[in-house]
## 1
Amino acid sequence: MISESKPKNIVELLFLQRAGANKELLVKTNAKGKITEILGNYLLFSPEGLKPGIPITEAFPFLSPFFPVAHREVVNLPAVNLGKLYVSVQMFYEENRDVWILFSDVTREVNEVKDFIQQNNDLALKQKTVIKHPPLDNPFGNLHLFGVVTFLKTNNNNLVCLGETPSWLMEYFPQLALAKSETELFEIFPYLEVFLPAAGSFWETGKEEMFGSDMWIETPVDNNELFFRAFVTNKNGNHYLMVRLLDKGDISVNQQTVQKARDQQLLYEKLEKAEKELKKLLNYKDKFVSIVSHDLRSPMASVVSIAELLLTDKQLVSTMSEFNLDMLRSMKEELLRLLEYNNRLYHWANLELGNFKLDREKTTIRKLIDSVSQTAKPKIEAKNIRFLSLVPEDFEIEVDVSLFTQALNNLIGNAIKFTPETGQIEIKAKQENGKAQVVVSDTGVGMPPKVQQSVFSGVPNESTLGTSGEKGSGLGLDIVKKIMDAHGFNIAVQSEVGKGTMFIINLIN
Amino acid sequence: MIKKKICMLGSFAVGKTSLVQQFVNSIFSEKYHTTIGVKIDQKNVLIDGNEVTLMLWDIHGEDEFQKVKPAYIMGSAGYFIVMDGTRRNSIETGLELQKMVEKTIGRVPFIILINKADLQDSWEISNEDIQQLKSMGKEVMLTSAKTGDAVEDAFIKLTRLMLK
């Protein structure tokens, strides 16, 4: 009976679950062609109706040559025209000579290529080139509708083109349908020369699966690229070669992936090159600063000495007006500041270049802080700042004494600069749970968040005037960071505008 | 008519396709368009009275995404190893491919083309590198697929070597 919504057996269930089952009809007949079962959309293929018991040839007269059943094989019939429909028919024979006949609607596929075939035939007639139609059916069905041309390799190593040919063949390679040997095929597709030796080995295995080539490109006209792949297989002891024009959509996805990966690789290589160039330029800049600041040290020190000499010459001083004397004193102070700035610049450039060697030695943090507070004492007293040192006597540390002292000097100097008169600076060192810290805090003006973020960014900051108009180089904290990095220590800052700043050194090692 | 197969080999984006396009069609495109698979072009040339059909196998660039299969090289009468003057790492890939070819088909004529001569200001491959390649007994030519400089000369030179 005609299949209803509820499948009656597993065959019907499987058939109805297939994609596209609404465009197919499956009919079972006995060996004489009498219908025993009908599954699928019979109205599409036989509007007059089908029913069990009647001969299949009554509804489909073109099947007459196949009944009563004479052989047991699969039969593929190319697109059969049934009025408005094109139908592909496949017949499967069971052991008991019952036959399953699958009708598939291929009207859309045929219509898609019909115009091309028409155009090609017109062209062939116009060029008076008559392409002989290949005489043998293609045992794989209507592969030409999927852009595939199929060849059978004969026992005497010749090639025979099977079944219908795809539209691209007629358009670009009409001579392909007439190729009789591998040599003739290589003339048209030289790529096959490298594929067919491997194909030969595959044919010898007798396997009935597909063995495919890589992709190759042909440009038959106007530099328009066509992508092809070849496949070989075996069937019933015969060897087959198929050449397929690939779908542009598939190619573009494949190509886009590799293209994208390679574009990124090229971009990465460019960035790497740019980074190398920048590092070279930065190195050049640091070397330049290091050399210039080094060479400026001696003449600057000489001028400072001359100014000192003049100020200690009592005879000269007695002849000078108070105004000129002040000018000379200012000159000396400014020169000293310039010398200090230059020293920092020299130091900074060498730290940046890595032109130093850490000379670690064991010492106590107390010793270092005493030395630093001694150096800072005049400035602390000048601003009437309260200085507290809360450092245990036996707190040992292994550092480059000269560099670490300089870092502490810079931190204390920074705290003095930004702490107003009568403020407080505190330096603490503590060891807890295997962690060791040195903390320098002040009750100064503090830093806005933006400055806090950039203070250890590796880029020197612009110098800011202190609370009493003190000038600086803008390099001090950057030098501190570089010294801590060289030791493998970590430094962080916490600050609040109007309340003060705290630098925390974590002595990791 | 004599037929000769020539393979274009090298790292990706060194200009293999552009060299073939410049030689066969006298065109050049700035846009990098990666070659998937193999592209075969033909060009007839007349060399010393011999008419030769050159079958130019433009094989996809070698990198971790696509490896050149030795089968592609079979039957080659000669080949080009193309390097990109602006990318020093293309030397290494080129020399590895050259070894692979020699292992597959033995010694046949080949020329190393250092391409992108129009960008010589930004070359990473130095004169010392070129001298080193020459000292290894390799034929080296500097080409520009963009301007066409030395492109035809390179194909003619290789064809002459193949006809010897």
## 2
Amino acid sequence: MPTELTRIIELFQLPFMQRALLGGILTGLMGGMLGSFTILRQLSFFSDALGHSALLGISIGLLLGLNPSVVLLPFAVVFALVVTYLLERTRLWTDALLNIIYSSSLAIAIITLSFVGQYKGGLNNLLFGDILAVRELDLVFSSFLLIICVVFIGLTLRTQMLVTLHEPLAIARGVSVSTHRTAFIVLLSLVVGVSIKAIGVLLVSAFVVIPACAARLLSRTFTNYVLLSAGLGALSAVGGMLISAAFNLPSGPSIVATQLVIFLTAMALPRLRVLGQG
Amino acid sequence: MKEVVLAVEQLTIYRETYVAVQDVSFSLEAGTDTAIVGPNGAGKSTLVQAVLGILPCQAGNVFILGQPLSRKGSLAPQIRQQIAYLPQNFLFDRRIPLTVEELVGLGWDRLGFQLPWANRRKRRHAVRDALAKVDALHLRHQLISGLSGGETKRVLLAYCLVYPRRLLILDEAPAGLDMRGETEFYQLLYQLKQEQDWAILQISHNLDMVRRHCDRVLCLNRTLLCQGTPDMALSPENLSAAYGSEFVRYRHQH
């Protein structure tokens, strides 16, 4: 164990590890905070579909010789708006429609990638992310986005609560539900888009879903639930990074595994309490 | 002459391809109680949802407290704050971690941009007052998922009365309660109506309740068949026009 500890201390003196840790915390906070509303509004599959479809954005970027991170954010926003439009216009089920969109974008993405010669080395990074490649500019952008999320959710918290609880009730109170829905989806897409580089297209939705579900199991009020969800997102990022450094494991999957441990603990906690009392 | 709280003029509402409500006009004065009756599919819920701006209307005008409702359903926020609406079968996702106190607090808020901790004391005070009036103060820390049907309705009445309102719109508010629950709900509603001087517009299938409590009745079946006092509007002739003659024979035999 002491060797692992020294290893962790040595590693976190390196700037790229510090950047990775900070990036993980920022992503965890944003994912957790928006995730708390996402799961209640049954949009968790949306973040998954967006993650998968993002590969199309990346592959188009590669084909055009553009930096994937530059293409990713506009792609995410356009994707969000198109999906929202289709959901309101067609009478199909949300999950079925999202499935059509993400499997077809995935198929087109892989076909596009076959035209880009040297993609093979990069595919692994696209699928599972490379948190160690987080640059300073990414951190600046993530911090900026976190501030937007905190301000937006903070100032509209009560409206968000009412919209989540019952849409007609919110409309009767004068809330423009469709504007709020679109604003939330665009924000969620930006968060997913920013996080893809570090965590990869396959695991990005875990950051939105798992901490929020764990927080739901532990919360007794709505406000605590949102705060706890963000907190657990950050905590799992720190825990996952430490484990990944200590045992030389891939970072993104280590964070998701940590989220799972937190979720399982949250599930077991009430039972443990009962045992403790008995 | 009392103040007119709600005025509806020649309202016509299309749902997809058919006319759901055609050329309906009526008005509601302060402190009075009007019931909308009619068979299923008569457009009752459509009508109240259009009055609230939840559904768009294609022709006609709605004025609430003298202010017009725009075609897109928007209304000045200070007017909105004076209306409360309880939808038919208030179905919410029971997994949402919201306490009774938080739910009732949402009825108090203005819902614009505000700091989450703004007016915390005032809100809490208003919420506890409202919960005490519906005899539900002891439920305040409970999650809404744990409430029984009757408790949910009482908490929703607290949501209505946590802020001084002028107009209450109820779409079959006691639906889902048993007979005793329904009686208790109406007892509480009319006691609060006296105290708060609410004008009430409600959709109801309980014609006996309507006879007892309401000042006026609107018989609706796509168009407004008649309106007037319960005795007049609920006469066998008018009922058979609204529900069909078999319904009236049934009611007279039972």
